[in-house]
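Q: How do we represent a protein-ligand complex in a form that can be generated token by token?
A: Start from the inputs.
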Amino acid sequence: MKSIVIASGNEHKIEEFRAMFKPLGIEVIGMKECGEMEEVQETGATFAENAVIKAEYLMKKLNQPVISDDSGLEIDALNREPGVYSARYLGHDTSYELKNRTLVERMKDKTDRTCRFVCAIALARPGHPTRVFEGIVEGIVARQPEGGHGFGYDPIFYYPPLGRTLAQISEQEKNAISHRGKAMRKLMEFWQHEEVAD
Ligand code: IMP
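Then emit the structure tokens for the protein with inosinic acid bound:
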């Protein structure tokens, strides 16, 4: 396999995959470069379902290998909200400053503060069963947002082993422990073992 399409319009995500596949000589193509402007609706009940829906839809349409990912934050005391609605929580265009402040407020009186980031990456290939690779990082909802790195819910995700939020650590430190980093490493392990690149 010489190229793979990423079922996302998010340039940052595409770049991450591009960097990972570069050493293997595999070209990573964003879906917009294939003329696909709209991401498929995330109608699944789980991250894995959503990743599979998006990857298989585009794989069938383009008849090419496709990778898709879906991720989000689950807070146990809030029935695992925002979960698969993480990007859409309080509205797609609402700032994360407000999303984070709202979650902190909702968690004010909760004693169980456990939460996790989950990432599911689906690999769909014509003529092969679709594979899903999942990564999880466990944490605690912070009492208040802290830190300026990262994105999204990072400022309220306190990571006990480092004693900081994910917005207070470098991108490199985050990659080593993050849900996305773990799922990506599983995908790469599979890729190398199964010799997907035939
Ligand atoms: P996706 O792009 O549809 O997978 O949406 C993922 C959403 O989950 C993002 O928009 C963020 O709200 C949240 N999220 C996922 N991963 C992270 C992370 O590493 N840090 C902070 N927020 C994240």
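The CA atoms of residues 30 and 42 lie 18 Å apart. DSSP finds five helices and eight strands in the chain.
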